[in-house]
Amino acid sequence: MRANYSGVRNFLLGLLLLLPLCGGSAWAQAQSQDTQAQRQEVQPGNNAPTWREVRSGKEAYTTAKGREAGVLIQNEGQAWRKLRNGPIVQYGGWLVVLMLVGIGAFYKLRGPIGLHSPPTGKMIERFSSFERIAHWSMAISFCILALSGLITLFGKFVLLPLIGHTLFGWLAEFGKTLHNFVGPIFAFSVVVFVVKFIGDNWPRAYDITWLVKGGGVLTGEVVPSGRFNAGEKIWFWGGVIGLGTVSCASGLVLDFPNFDQSRSLMILASTVHVIAGLWFILWAATHIYLGTVGTTGAYDAMRDGYVDETWAREHAQYWYEDVKAGRRALPSGEPGDATATTAPTQVQH
Ligand code: HEM
User: Which CATH architecture has domain 122-338?
Assistant: First the structure.
């Protein structure tokens, strides 16, 4: 008999332990209804307990199919909105302004990086047409993404008060659609660019000397480098590969929400995407400055494919010497020792 009693007792104890697990939710709901009913007695019209329940993030029943369809309100979304429209917009906005002012001030103080010796008039091929197409596909798609991204992030605060709801609504919608479609094109162009240029961006011992001397940018010294200097290599690895991978991967998660991503993952992707995109834009601004008004002759190289031999010797000495000595081919694949030729006639310098 004693054994039977203890068996029944253990069974009841077990039930008691399982009760909170099985009936926890129903109990909480009943309690919430109780607290709501009590609240209505003391403060009629105050639905705080119900809303607290709604915001608890618990999955409720719905006939709608889909991941998290039963969660009515997800608090993480509110935290994300506050972070995005608060510190990210504020600090990000000031960083963009600071970068533009900094570049302007640097140009005023330093001026463009020019040549130390006079041009020879002999042109050397710096980029093949395939390389230029790869660069400009990436650069143009990047600029479209940067502009439409900036409108999406800052437009509500900067443009809306200036141009009004109708025009801004149209612009924001157009920018968003453009951003969504150009994103994958940019991602593809990054892959092509990286495959094409990775060989010339491999780190070398002389890159350390270049970095220690700051590329001679402030002293005016000519510091030798390979086809690309250490500054360009850091931009290649950190900017194009690093930030390119992070912004493209997070962008694709947002672009294709049909792979059953959770809302938490989308929020994380959005936050990472905005922060990586902003750093990418800031960094690209310095590259675009150096590739245009900041360095005499650099833009011509990327536009037409040719530079003066003096430019090649002063900006990429080891590469120039290798090409002249026939140790490496021209970018188009022509033998290197045939370089003392002039550029095609349509190129005006
Ligand atoms: C839209 C404006 C842009 C201009 C005017 C521009 C200009 C240039 C120029 C002139 C060069 C050749 C430099 C040299 O001969 O050493 C170059 C190279 C390069 N550009 Fe751009 N660029 C632009 C946008 C971009 C963007 C948006 C990216 C990346 C997303 C980018 C990535 C690169 C890379 C990685 C190189 C080669 C450096 C290396 O491989 O190390 N460019 N660019």
Answer: Up-down Bundle (1.20)
